[in-house]
Write a structure and sequence with these properties.
This protein is mostly beta strands. The protein has three domains: 93 residues, Sandwich (Jelly Rolls), CATH 2.60.120.380; 83 residues, Jelly Rolls, CATH 2.60.120.380; 132 residues, Jelly Rolls. Helix content is 5%, strand content 51%. The strands form six sheets. A five-stranded mixed β-sheet has the order 1-3-8-5-6, with no helix packed on it. A hairpin with a 5-residue loop joins strand 13 and strand 14. The longest helix is centred in the first third of the chain and has 16 residues. The termini are far apart.
Length: 342
Amino acid sequence: MRRILSQIVFLVVFFVSSSAYALTSGSVTNGSISAGGTSYQTFSGTAGQGVHLSGYSDDYIVRIDIVDPDGIDWSGSNERFVGTLPKTGTYTVEITATSPSLSGDYSLYYVRGADSVSNGSLTSGESETGTLPELGLISYDFYGESGQAVIFHTAAAYNMQIYVYDPAGDYWTGGNNRVNSTLPDTGTYTVVMRGVSTSDTGAFNTYFFLGGEGVSNGDALSGTNDNGSLATNGILSFQFDGLFDEGLMIHTNASSPLTIRVYKEDGSLWTGANNRILDQLPEDGRYTVAVYATSNSFSGDYDFYFLKMNQSDGVSDGWFVPGTTRGFYLQPNEIVSYKFKG
């Protein structure tokens, strides 16, 4: 009888110590392992979706191994894993120490494309601040429509890798510190960020812009100059109403070249150049403008000069008066504008 009871107790204790817990996308799960032990977690996903797992411990290097829904070893790596699910179903994550003699607590970060995120939704024209833990993952989402342009920048004392997943959760695009592209589908996108190096940690800023959506700097007024300080890898954005065939002139000035992009009301890219744009609007509507440094390391003062060439639009220096002379000092890339009757 004692032998039977001892076997039952053993089986119950073993089951509890090896239970698998379901991971939540966008969250961190804390656990621990004993020397030579294994901790089990699970997550579910659809074939083609992207997943991120990142494990940190003060006591050992975390080993991550993943078993697919059929019980077959799929993949694994030390500390960080990024992959595309080959099958639909529930996966098992096995956490161990790379040295079996070590033990202690660990933190496991998990994000899946088209699932919940850690830092909420991005808003066009706004910036976010935060702190990246060592071996941590930061995730956001945003809604966009097919054909809309998107710009996403990060700034930190270290380089950040950006991964963007489409509304189905499949990997779409990415880059270090910057993403600038056109959305292929309509729906909610997932953005995942991590340090390039496993030792990267500390404060960061993000800057987000969608063509045709909210802007950071308000309305661009004809004949005026907006000036201020551009943050490292920051994005300035403006909006204006325009008419078909109306002339448009935009100049920027800074100690480093600035990229200008102009977007139509549907959010698609119309035109762009470095420092200067002179063109005629292709249609009536509300346009948005994004401005950022060509170099992702620049920060400093800028000037943004804006002029629409329509009789009703404003100018910087008023009316020409017949028989008079005007003198001025032209700043680098400045636009000086007048009206006259003829």
